Amino acid sequence: MTQRDEDTTAVSFTGAVRAFGSVRAVDGVDLRIGRGETVALLGRNGAGKSTTIGMLLGLYPPDAGGVELFGSEPERAVRAGRVGAMLQDARPVPRVTVGELVGFVASRYPAPMPVSRALELAGISALAGRRVDRLSGGQVQRVRFAVALAGDPSLLVLDEPTAALDVEARHVFWESMRGYARRGHTVLFSTHYLEEADSFADRIVVMDRGRIVADGTGEELRRAAGGSLVCVDLAGRTTDGLALLPGVRSLEVAGDRVRLRTDDSDATVIALAELGAIRRLEVAPASLDDAFLALTSSATSGRPPRGAGNCANNHDAPAPESAPLTPSSTAKSTAKAL
Ligand SMILES: Nc1ncnc2c1ncn2[C@@H]1O[C@H](COP(=O)(O)OP(=O)(O)OP(=O)(O)O)[C@@H](O)[C@H]1O
C-alpha cells in the first residue's frame, strides 16, 4: 500500500481467509473502503458478513491474507480508539444505567464524545437513568449504538444495527447515522434490508459463501444482475425454448406466468411476439431484490421476488415496507434460474 493509499484507506482486506473447521466463512476477500465512505455488507444468513466484521475488528485473525485498518493491524486501530463497533451478540450489562454504561465506555477512549451527545445521537436521552437490563430489545439496540459512538471513532462498524428496531426507530437510527457519516466518518454496516443498503450506503458489497460477488452502487448492482424483467402469461403453453430467446438469462415460473430476466428486453419481446406469447405482457426494470437474488445462489422455484414492480405476479401482495431478506423469505420468493 502506498503512503497515499494509507492516507485515504480506512479498511483493507487482501485475499483474506478465515475458516471454522471445514467451513471457509471468509474465502479470499479483497475489499478496500475509503475514508468517509458508507458501505453496506449484504448477504444471506451464513454468507460471512459477521466473520468479515470480526476479522476487521481483530477478533478473528486471518488464516491467510491480510486485514488492515488505517494502514495498520486492526488491534492497533481498535486500541487507539479509532473504531466503534456494534455487534450482534453483545449482552446488556446488569444493574448499570444507560448513562453509566455509555460514560464508562467513553472513559476508556482517548478523545470521547460527551455522553449526552452519544445518547442524543442514538435517540435515547430520555433513557439515561434507566437500567440497561430492564429495557426492551429495541431500546437495548439503541444503547449499543450509543456505546459504539461513545469514543467518537473514525470508523463505525455495525453488524445488523436495525435488526430489532421498529420502523420508526429505524428511521431515527438512519438519520443519526447520516449525521455521523456526513461529518466525514467511515461506516460499514451489515444488513438484510435491501432498501436500507440502497438508501444509506454509498456502496453495497454483496457476499455469498464467504466471497464478494458484487460491489457497487444499487444501480450498478441492478445493471450487473441483468437489466430487465419481461413477464407474460403462459396461457397453457410450456416454457420450452423460452430460456433460449434473445437476451434471456434465466426464467422463473409462477403458476401460469413466466418471468424472463433479460439483458435485451426489446429483442426478448420481439421474439415472444413472433411466438404469439404476448398475453398480459409486461416489461419492468429489475429491482434490487432481483439483483440480489441473481447475484447470490438462488434456491427453488416459486413466487417471484418481492419488489418486482409491475412485472410481479398480479396475485402477489405488495411487499411490506423494508422487509428483511431472510432465508425463509428468499426460499419462498426465489425462483429457479434455468
Ligand atoms: N465461531 C464459529 N464457529 C464455527 N462456525 C462459524 C463460527 N462463526 C461463523 N461460522 C460459520 O461461518 C459461516 C459464516 O457465518 P457468519 O456468521 O459470518 O455469516 P453472516 O453472513 O454474518 O450470517 P447472518 O446473516 O446469519 O448473521 C457460517 O456457515 C457459520 O455457520
Shape call: elongated
- CATH architect. name of the largest domain: 3-Layer(aba) Sandwich
- SSE succession: HEEEHEHEHHHEHEHEEHEEEHEHH
Q: How many DSSP H or I helices?
A: 12
Structure notes:
This protein has 338 residues and is α/β, with parallel strands linked by helices. It has 2 domains: 7-222, P-loop containing nucleotide triphosphate hydrolases (Rossmann fold, 3-Layer(aba) Sandwich), CATH 3.40.50; 226-297, Alpha-Beta Plaits (2-Layer Sandwich), CATH 3.30.70. It contains 12 helices and 13 strands. The radius of gyration is 23 Å and the shape is elongated. Bound molecules: adenosine-5'-triphosphate (ATP). Residues 20, 23, 25, 43, 45-51 line the site of adenosine-5'-triphosphate (ATP). Residues 325-338 have a biased composition (Polar residues). Residues 11-234 form the ABC transporter domain. Pfam families: ABC_tran (PF00005), DrrA1-3_C (PF13732). It is a peripheral membrane protein.
List strands and helices in order, with pairings.
Blueprint: H1 3-8, E1 9-20, E2 23-34, E3 38-42, H2 49-56, E4 64-69, H3 74-79, E5 83-86, H4 98-107, H5 115-121, H6 137-149, E6 155-159, H7 167-182, E7 186-191, H8 194-200, E8 203-208, E9 211-216, H9 218-224, E10 228-233, E11 248-254, E12 257-262, H10 265-275, E13 282-285, H11 288-295, H12 327-333
Parallel strand pairs: 3-7, 3-8, 5-6, 6-7
Antiparallel strand pairs: 1-2, 1-4, 8-9, 10-12, 10-13, 11-12
